[in-house]
Amino acid sequence: MSYGASRRDTYRQAGNYAGRILKGEKASELPVMLPTKFHLVINLKTAKSLRIDIPATVLARADEVIE
To answer: What is the mean pLDDT of residues 11-32?
Structure first.
């Protein structure tokens, strides 16, 4: 099971930072931006091999389920 920030969103924010720096803003004056989108990924094959039962409610909330 993995819960973390969306890579796509993180890369987009990095691109925004790069664009602002290239337009002349000082990097030291840019605000710190925290991730806003997170993804929950569950690997059922690994869970079954470890004999872990994942509740259906957790599976329903997952963004991606690997079988």
So the answer is: 94
- What would the 3-class secondary structure string for 1-67 be? CEEEECHHHHHHHHHHHHHHHHCCCCHHHCCCCCCCCEEEEEEHHHHHHCCCCCCHHHHHHCCEEEC
pTM over 0.90, yes/no: no
pLDDT (average), residues 4-23: 93
Radius of gyration for the chain, computed over Cα atoms and rounded to the nearest angstrom: 18
Residue positions counted in the chain = 67
- Which pair of tokens denotes residue 57? 């409610």
Q: Which two three-digit tokens encode residue 36?
A: 């806003």
